[in-house]
Each structure stands twice: as structure tokens, then as C-alpha cells.
Write a structure and sequence with these properties.
There is one protein chain. The protein is mainly beta. The protein has a domain at 6-16 and 676-746: Immunoglobulin-like. The protein contains two helices and 65 strands. Strands 35, 36, 37, 38, 39, 40, 41 and 42 form an eight-stranded antiparallel beta sheet that branches. Strands 60-1-65-62-63 form a five-stranded mixed beta sheet, with no helix packed on it. It starts with 5 loop residues before the first strand and ends with a strand.
Length: 747
């Protein structure tokens, strides 16, 4: 009898959650809008963006992302080129790293990245010739042999053969041309020693010969070059014609323009300029003058379709028969990610920020919202610097957005309904103008919204459930210039971070939010039970599932195990405690948990474990008691986009952990969900489990921390574990570590 190739895990309701990723998997949440380079690969078109790389598949019109999650070895692409003879894409990065991408693999060539002594390693342009790739870099030209995965030669074109930035390379049958910041240089390809600077000569008869040239193309026996002039819209395209230099496109742009790229494709010359893609035939007759938004690079294919890498819209495709459309993967509108927050199955990320001196950056206020399937981004043009967001409880479409200078913006279904500032609320401004600086926001159990307001006499305000604003004169007690994040714990105590080395301020309103007279409050120095200061530089604060308060400082995390005693001081237990982690090396010694790290963010998962984001060392997942390190994700060992973590939030329903970094957003499906006191909608992912699947099998919707047993259809126990919060994970193996046979299994 032939066995089935399926492994089905049966539960009361065996449903798969659409859109989820497996436990242990990553996915990026990058913006792919800011495109700057295309590569035509026949049945595919690759597009390099400020976020990463994506690919449009002509056969089925699908779009796929390619990022660190998919195997890229770095972030911040700078250029790409397709090697059609060898069916591979060569990708260059700002830091000099190189990836060679084929349908089977992504191969890293880190030679330039690892080379010391070079101040600018950016790969500006890639020119494919034969089996070699000429890389125009911040220091010169690097000759890459993709087959051997090595840099074969390096050409330095600065004075006396010193490093000098090269922006582009073009070749004719027998010459190589290089565009630099001080003119165009050429050399014979028949010269076996191009490493020798004397083999190169400057083209001195071209107009503005000693100035910056940024793009080159060899077309119909002529060299075309973009001169980047000083001033506004002062670029020019020059070309050689029978020993004379002429200018292209002067009638198209009488008021001047910017030129971004020259490309030879399908027997035509394509020029990307400010707002247009111009297509010329072999006789330099203008075939198309196409408005394409804000192109940075343009191509034309054999079907006369113009493809442009647009600065705001990904790929813009213009078909002469069907018109213009946009190709763009889903994602936020940009890669700015300052503070992340989750509520009702949605993820909210503000795209603002502050200067190092806690001043304004003057970025347009933006909030990115993810519903588990798609991203939306809200932007306002009447304010600046959105740094926090909170949803009304159980109303995830109604949001309050805190800004650094413009008060609070209230949104309903992505529409601005109100702006709260000193004219209509208790919020105050430092001086007249746009200096109503709001940061922390939190709801208490009675639906009162508490906010922090920096630099003013009444730095705490509350919006009551019935819509009344009241400010509290805590200024003298706080005695600090700024107030930032705000946590309301399960005991209704309010914990306020006093940034830049000022510790914490904690108060209890005693059930009378608008009346300070009966409040209990204290300024808190982050110190141990002996009064020894640990660090008053505080960056984040969180309450765990047992009611303990965790504080992220410049000297690692500390815990307040008796938060109610914080008003009474160390003798009552109201002090900060560092976690002493035993070394387990026989010495009897231990080290304080992450004491050398600056903890920028704390998130508590459904199993009461702590995710710690750091300033320079990525992310740690630590056990509930703080004694065991479960994961340490860095830029170097995972798809994490950066080691600088701004914020972490968790979708408690799925266990997916979102990391807001200084390079964008990425997420990881953790093993713990929130869970509840009773079973929810129990389901298994994936279900059915294919015989070829070898990942983890997730059982979610469980009651918190229950014991989970898995049996075969005859009732034989094959696996047992304890849920992490509301979720359990099974690796598909039995107690002996062997993969179970195909069949039906019961939970």
C-alpha cells in the first residue's frame, strides 16, 4: 500500500493563518519606492532601490523582493548590472561589498569591503565587458572577475596614480573611458598594464574638460558623456562627432536640467533627465520624449517599452500601446523607523526622530501601518517630526500622533480630524511657535490618555475619557529639560523617562487624574540597594507579565521587582537590580546582564521573555528570569538590517517581532504568543505538513503556558512540550530525535 506524502496535524479547528510566516523565519518591511537603477534580464527586470532589490517577472507579472532575508549579504545597494552572457546580476553596495546573484545562489565577493586604507568604497557603476565587470568606485576602477570571485586589478586615476572617485566606465572596441570628478580619462584596452597611471590620458578637448562627469556611453562609434555643472540644472550631455564635441538635447531643455544616466539598449540611446526619458536612434533622432516622474535611470526594451527607476514610485513602465503603470512591492513609504507600537493585530511605526541635542529634524510627519498583509503610510504636510503613535483602546483606526513641536495629531481612518496644541488643549509650548513638544503617550484603565510635554512648566497632561484636557504642574518635581516615554503599569503608576542622564520620574494620581494634590510622586535615580548609581541614561521601559518593571539604560537592563516600593526607597525594596548571570566556569563568578550594552528598546513576549534592542550590538532574546541568552541577532549573523535598534514591538497574536532600525524595518517570527486564560481559535501552521517540509510546526491559539501533547492516531505519545505563552512549537520529531512517519497526528 502506498503511503500518503502528507503529515496532517489535527486540532479542533485546523486552519492556517493567511499571510503568516513560519516560526524562525524573517521578512523585510522595506520601502522600495526610491529606485535608482534597473537591469534588463530578458524575462525579468531588476530594480535597485534605497531599501533593497526587487524583480519584476515578465512571464507572470509577479514581483519578488530580494533583501538580506533572501540572502543578500549587505544593505544599501549603490548600483547593479546584468551580465546577459552568463545570466547573472552583479550588485554593488555603498560600502564596497559585492553580490553575484544567479537563479541558484547569491555569492559574496567582499574584497573591496574588507580592504583597509580606502575612505570611500562606494561602487557607483558597473560596466560588463566579456567575462569581466569594471566597477567604478569611490577610489578608482576595480576589475572584477565574477568567475573567480576576485578583484583582478585596481586602477587609480588621481594625481600620480592616487585614489580618485570614478563615477562611470564605458568601453569601445579598443579603449576604456572613465568619468571622474576632474574630467574623463581614457586608455587603450590593448595595454597590458592599465594599473600604471601613465597608461591613462585625460580627454582635454571636451568642454569643461577638468570638471565633473558622471555618466558615459559608447553609442554608434561616439562617446557620450554627462557633464555635471555647478549651480542649478546646469548639466550637459556632450558627444564626439568626427573629432568635434557637440551637445545633445539643448532644444529640449532651454532652461537647463539634471541628467542622471546614459544607457545603450535595443540599438538606442536612452537619456534619463529630470522628469523625462529621452530615446534616440542611431542617427540621434529623438524618438521619444517621455515624462516619467523623477527618473534616475531608464531603459527601453525590444517592444519599445520604456522602463524607468523612479525616485518616488519604484518602476514606471510606459508602453506605447497600453500607457503608463507603476511596479512596486508592498511596503512603507520610506525606511525611516523611529518608534514601533502594536495594537489589535496591527503594527504602527513612526518615521520621525530627534537630533542628538534633542532638537528637530524637521522631517514630514509619517506613520507606517501594517495590518499583517499590507502597509499603509500616512503623511501630513502641515507639521514635522512624528515620534510616537498610540491607538485608542480597541479602536486601531483612531490614532494619536505625537510630534516634536506641533502638538498631537488625531487621525480617524488615516484622515486628520484634529490637532491638539496650546490653542485648544492643556499642552504648552516652550516659546511661541512650533515648540509644543510631545513624546510619551499611554492610556490608563479608565481610558484617560496621558502625555509628556517637554520644556514647559506643566510637563504632564491628561486627556480624560470625556474629552477634557488637564495639565499637571510637575515641573519643579521633575526638574529636567525633557520628558520622553511614558509607561503606565498594572498598578496605575506612571513611569516617565527623563532623557539625557536624568533617570526617571514616577507618580501615582490616586484615581484623581486632574488633581495633583493627592498624588504620590518621586524623582528616581537608577541605583542599587546601596545607593550606587548604575546609569541614569534611560532609553526604554517595560512591564513584564509578572508586574516587574524593566528599564533599559546605558549600562544594560535593570529591574524593579517591587515597583510599588519605588516611592519609599531602597529600604522598602524600591531599587534597581541588575541580573547577575553566572559564568558557569567553576569560578563562582558572574557578570551583570548586558552591562556593557546601551539598551534602546525592551519588548516582552508571551512567554515573559525579554527582547532587548541595543545601540550598536543588535538584538538579544533573554529568558524570563534574565539568566539565559536564547538568541543574539546581529547584522552579521542574521537578516537584521542594522545593529542600531531604535524600537521593538511584538504582534502578540502571531509572535512576530518587529525591529525598527536606523536602516528600516524587519521582522522575525518568534516562538511565543500572548495566549490567554482559555483556549482561543487553535490552529496549526503549516497544515497540512508536506513530506518535504523540514521546518518547525507551530500550534497557536492555546491557553497560556499549557502542556501540549502530540499523539499518533492510535494514541501513542510522540512529543510533549510546554506552550510559550499561547503557542507551542514542534520540530516534527519524536522523543528519540527521529522524524515521525507520515500520517495523522493529534494535539
Amino acid at each position: 500500500m502506498k503511503r500518503s506524502g502528507l503529515l496532517s496535524v489535527v486540532v479542533f479547528i485546523a486552519l492556517t493563518s493567511h499571510g503568516q510566516i513560519p516560526v524562525g523565519a524573517w521578512r523585510d518591511h522595506l520601502s522600495y519606492r526610491q529606485a535608482f537603477r534597473l537591469a534588463d534580464a530578458g524575462n525579468r527586470v531588476f530594480c535597485a532601490t534605497s531599501g533593497s532589490l526587487f524583480c519584476y517577472h515578465r512571464n507572470d507579472h509577479s514581483v519578488s523582493k530580494i533583501s538580506t532575508v533572501d540572502g543578500l549579504h549587505d544593505i544599501e545597494l549603490s548600483t547593479i548590472a546584468f551580465d546577459s552572457a552568463n545570466n547573472r546580476l552583479v550588485a554593488g553596495y555603498k560600502n564596497g561589498n559585492i553580490d553575484i546573484i544567479t537563479s541558484e545562489s547569491i555569492i559574496n565577493v567582499p574584497d573591496i569591503f574588507l580592504k583597509s586604507g580606502l575612505t570611500n568604497k562606494t561602487i557607483n557603476h558597473i560596466h560588463i565587458r566579456g567575462n569581466l565587470a569594471y566597477l567604478s568606485c569611490g577610489f578608482g576602477i576595480a576589475l572584477l572577475n565574477p568567475d573567480k570571485r576576485e578583484i583582478k586589478d585596481t586602477y587609480y586615476l588621481g594625481p600620480g596614480g592616487s585614489p580618485a572617485e570614478v563615477f562611470a566606465v564605458a568601453t569601445s572596441d579598443d579603449h576604456i573611458f572613465a568619468a571622474t570628478g576632474s574630467g574623463i580619462y581614457k586608455a587603450s584596452l590593448n595595454n597590458p598594464n592599465l594599473v600604471d597611471f601613465s597608461a591613462w590620458s585625460q580627454i582635454s578637448d571636451i568642454p569643461n574638460f577638468s570638471e565633473s562627469f558622471t555618466s558615459l556611453a559608447w553609442f554608434e562609434g561616439k562617446l557620450f558623456a554627462v557633464h555635471h555643472g555647478s549651480g542649478t540644472r546646469n548639466d550637459h550631455v556632450y558627444y564626439s562627432d568626427n573629432g568635434q564635441w557637440k551637445e545633445l538635447g539643448t532644444l529640449l531643455y532651454p532652461d537647463g536640467t539634471y541628467y542622471y544616466s546614459l544607457e545603450v539598449c535595443s540599438g538606442k540611446l536612452v537619456v534619463a533627465s529630470q522628469n523625462y526619458a529621452d530615446v534616440y536612434d542611431s542617427n540621434l533622432r529623438l524618438l521619444r520624449h517621455s515624462w516619467t516622474g523623477d527618473p534616475r535611470h531608464a531603459l527601453i526594451d525590444k517592444e519599445d517599452v520604456i522602463w524607468t527607476a523612479d525616485h518616488y514610485h519604484g518602476i514606471i513602465r510606459e508602453n506605447p500601446q497600453t500607457g503608463r503603470d507603476t511596479i512596486l512591492p508592498d511596503g512603507p513609504s520610506n525606511n525611516d523607523a523611529f518608534l514601533a507600537y502594536s495594537a489589535s493585530g496591527k503594527i504602527f511605526v513612526t518615521a520621525g526622530g530627534l537630533s542628538s541635542a534633542w532638537g528637530n529634524l524637521y522631517n514630514l510627519p509619517c506613520v507606517h501601518i501594517f495590518d499583517g498583509q499590507k502597509w499603509q503610510s500616512w503623511t501630513d504636510y502641515d507639521a514635522r517630526d512624528a515620534i510616537n503613535v498610540i491607538a485608542r483602546p480597541n479602536e486601531p483606526d483612531n490614532l494619536y500622533v505625537a510630534t516634536w513641536g506641533y502638538g498631537i495629531i488625531y487621525l480617524e481612518k488615516m484622515q486628520k480630524k484634529a490637532v491638539y496644541n496650546p490653542s485648544n488643549s492643556s499642552l504648552q509650548t516652550i516659546i511661541p511657535g512650533d515648540f509644543c513638544r510631545v513624546y510619551g503617550m499611554a492610556y490608563d484603565k479608565n481610558m484617560n490618555l496621558w502625555v509628556t510635554n517637554s520644556g514647559v512648566s506643566n510637563p504632564i497632561s491628561v486627556l480624560s475619557a470625556d474629552g477634557k484636557w488637564t495639565s499637571l504642574n510637575y515641573g519643579p518635581a521633575i526638574n529636567a529639560p525633557n520628558v520622553s516615554k511614558l509607561l503606565i503599569d498594572s498598578g496605575n503608576r506612571k513611569w516617565v523617562i527623563l532623557p539625557r542622564g536624568n533617570g526617571l520620574f514616577v507618580f501615582d494620581d490616586n484615581g484623581t487624574p486632574g488633581d495633583i494634590r493627592d498624588d504620590t510622586y518621586t524623582r528616581v535615580s537608577i541605583a542599587d540597594n546601596a545607593g550606587n548609581e548604575i546609569s541614569n541614561f534611560v532609553y526604554d521601559i517595560a512591564e513584564d507579565l509578572e508586574g516587574n518593571i524593566w528599564v533599559g539604560t546605558a549600562s544594560g537592563p535593570v529591574v524593579y521587582y517591587h515597583p510599588a516600593a519605588v516611592f519609599e526607597g531602597p529600604q522598602a525594596g524600591g531599587y534597581a537590580q541588575q541580573i547577575l548571570v553566572p559564568r558557569n566556569d567553576g569560578s563562582g563568578l558572574g557578570d551583570y546582564l548586558l552591562s556593557t550594552e546601551t539598551i534602546t528598546s525592551i519588548a516582552v513576549d508571551g512567554a515573559n521573555r525579554k527582547w532587548f534592542g541595543t545601540r550598536n550590538s543588535g538584538v538579544y532574546l533573554i529568558s524570563a528570569d534574565g539568566l539565559k541568552q536564547i538568541h543574539h541577532f546581529t547584522r552579521e549573523n542574521s537578516p537584521l538590517l542594522s545593529n542600531t535598534i531604535n524600537s521593538i514591538t511584538i504582534d502578540g497574536q502571531t509572535g512576530e517581532v518587529f525591529f525598527a532600525t536606523d536602516k528600516g524595518i524587519v521582522s522575525y517570527r518568534g516562538t511565543a504568543t500572548s495566549g490567554g486564560d482559555s483556549f482561543g481559535k487553535v490552529y496549526v501552521f503549516p497544515n497540512p505538513v508536506r513530506e518535504t517540509y523540514h521546518g518547525d510546526i507551530t500550534i497557536t491559539g492555546l491557553a497560556r503556558n499549557v502542556n501540549v501533547k502530540i499523539t499518533d492516531i492510535s494514541g501513542n505519545l510522540v512529543f510533549e512540550t510546554k506552550a510559550l505563552g499561547g503557542q507551542a512549537v514542534w520540530n516534527g520529531k519524536n522523543f528519540d530525535g527521529r522524524r515521525v512517519a507520515t500520517g495523522v497526528y493529534l494535539v
